[in-house]
Specification:
Helix content is about 65%, strand content about 5%. It is mostly helical and about 325 residues long. Helix 2 runs antiparallel to helix 3, helix 4 runs parallel beside helix 6 and helix 6 packs antiparallel against helix 9.
Length: about 325
């Protein structure tokens, strides 16, 4: 409640600073969107590789703001639906449109209109991935599922954008990587676009706990980082190697999941009943979560059947 104080004939209102906390995470999110706009402006300026390098750095600032807006919201307990939707819209600009313009100007210009189409696929795939994420997140909230999922469905758009950004940074900073085949760049963009809209599960790492395995993994990564730095490997190349390892981990685990599904189908054909793993939602369950089917009432007790999926469902994407 605002208190009124009479001082020298002037009514002073005490400010409720709690209400100003809601501005902080949104400022980080809007800074993320502004970084994307700066990147698009620099990429479109046509001033050569120096502008493309600065455009890639602008997206790196977007990574920083995108990393901390959700943490600031949780720290100040100001998580809102507005913040979540604002975060997704900002990600479309900074990690969708900005990297697409960047990669077109950097490595797809020789394809002409086909290059524009390939870069446009990256934007469309990233937008679709964010929309699917929001749908699954809201449906998980309706069902009361608050625990963060172990996996996230499809490659996240910041991870896909980071591959493009680090390729540009490497090509600018290291002479031996300056000559890059534009056909290879097109293949990389198409693969990233597919991974974002695919049903491949990638680890969200939001269920990490301070265990011996986690500590060992951190030591291993730090050791590899030190060794590569001692050999004067470019920083962007180190980050690119980590992202590639993350994508490789997701693909490897998907192969393991595929083998499990094949084993289940073989067991079903032989008459055995095998329960699916808890972290492996079925195709019908994911489609139902996306609203592909109408909700049906159970014929026996009249209750609605709601399938559950173990995918990421944070308050702020």
């Amino acid at each position: 409640m605002l208190a009124r104080l009479w001082t020298g004939g002037i009514i002073c209102r005490a400010v409720d600073f709690r209400k100003t906390y809601y501005i902080l995470p949104n400022l980080f999110t809007l800074s993320n969107a502004f970084s994307g706009f700066v990147s698009i402006s620099l990429s479109s300026s046509g001033e050569g590789s120096a502008s493309l390098y600065m455009a890639a750095l602008a997206i790196c600032f977007g990574f920083f703001f995108d990393t901390f807006d959700g943490r600031v919201a949780r720290l100040t307990k100001t998580q809102t639906d507005l913040g979540r939707d604002l975060d997704s819209l900002s990600d479309v600009i900074t990690f969708g449109a900005a990297p697409a313009v960047l990669v077109y100007k950097w490595g797809l210009t020789s394809f002409g209109r086909l290059g524009i189409f390939i870069a446009g696929l990256f934007v469309c795939a990233g937008t679709m991935r964010l929309a699917r994420f929001n749908v699954l997140s809201r449906r998980e909230e309706v069902t009361g599922h608050k625990k963060p999922g172990k996996y996230t469905l499809g490659l996240s758009i910041p991870a896909a954008a980071s591959v493009v950004v680090f390729l540009v940074l490497i090509s600018h900073g290291v002479e031996m990587y300056r000559t890059v085949s534009q056909v290879l760049v097109a293949v990389v963009v198409l693969v990233l676009s597919y991974l974002m809209v695919s049903r491949i599960r990638f680890r969200s790492f939001k269920d990490l706990r301070p265990t011996k395995r986690t500590f060992g993994a951190v030591l291993l990564i730090a050791g590899v980082w030190v060794v590569m730095r001692m050999n004067r490997v470019h920083d962007a190349f180190i980050f690119l190697a980590l992202i590639a390892a993350y994508i490789g981990l997701g693909l490897t685990e998907e192969i393991i999941f595929l083998r499990r599904r094949l084993a289940e189908r073989t067991a079903e054909k032989s008459g055995q009943v095998v329960a699916p793993p808890a972290d492996q939602p079925r195709d019908e369950e994911v489609l139902a979560e996306l609203g592909a089917f109408d909700q049906q009432e159970d014929e026996t007790d009249g209750e609605e059947t709601r399938p559950s999926s173990n995918v990421e469902s944070p308050k702020r994407a």
